[in-house]
From TrEMBL:
GO terms for molecular function: DNA-binding transcription factor activity; transcription cis-regulatory region binding. It comes from Allokutzneria albata. This is Regulatory protein, tetR family. Residues 30-49 bind DNA. Residues 7-67 form the HTH tetR-type domain. The lineage of its organism: Bacteria, Bacillati, Actinomycetota, Actinomycetes, Pseudonocardiales. It comes from the Bacteria.
Length: 207
């Protein structure tokens, strides 16, 4: 096992790479810029990850695991109706979704993998009813709509008057998404539980 401080350094460098890639794209980010953001030397970054490609692979894997874990916890374990879970997601997700938005535009090697995984996760929780398009087609379209908003986050934020990833705007986006997605397409009671959790979250934030 690597020493604890070694593991901490790797996590800090990965988080710095997420932020740099999200802000500058893969072409614009540099090992030196990532090192400065992490508070380490470029040599240490290269020691742990080798090249920018190595860093990007680690970031891609981290983003994919983030979505898997939070989907399993939120829907699979029923935490999506918990205001504390909503707060946890809003606090932890901005670097991840900023990175994903840029990776989708830049064409990160894992962007297709992440998209496909999100389609699978979405399809798993859509309800089949007579007269509807098949669940996979609906999952593909819905995932494209949600990720499209991420890619267009500058415009979405501009019109909302707040950063769409912030605790101020994110609940508004959550409720709007629930308004657009008919409740009968989701597992029974899920839409109502999420709405209640969003309300409790906002009450806790003093809004």
């Amino acid at each position: 096992m690597p020493p604890v401080d070694d593991l901490t350094a790797r996590a800090r460098i990965r988080d710095a790479a997420l932020a740099e890639f999200g802000a500058r794209g893969f072409a614009g980010a540099t090992i030196r810029g990532i090192a400065e953001r992490a508070g380490f030397s470029p040599a240490l970054v290269q020691h742990h990850f080798g090249t920018k490609d190595g860093l990007r692979a680690v970031c891609d894997a981290h983003v994919l695991e983030y979505f898997r874990e939070h989907t399993a916890s939120g829907i699979g374990d029923g935490r999506v109706g918990d205001a504390s879970f909503i707060a946890e997601v809003y606090a932890s997700s901005p670097p991840v979704v900023h990175y994903l938005a840029r990776a989708l535009v830049d064409g990160s090697p894992a962007a297709a993998t992440v998209f496909d995984e999100l389609v699978k996760l979405t399809e798993r929780y859509l309800v089949d009813r007579p007269g509807l398009a098949d669940a996979r087609t609906r999952a593909i379209v819905f995932t494209g709509m949600r990720l499209g908003a991420l890619v267009l986050h500058d415009h979405v934020s501009r019109l909302l008057g707040a950063d769409m990833f912030s605790g101020e705007a994110a609940p508004r986006i959550g409720r709007a998404t629930l308004d657009i997605v008919a409740p009968e397409l989701l597992p029974e009671g899920l839409s109502a539980r999420v709405r209640e959790a969003l309300e409790r979250y906002e009450e806790g934030q003093g809004r």
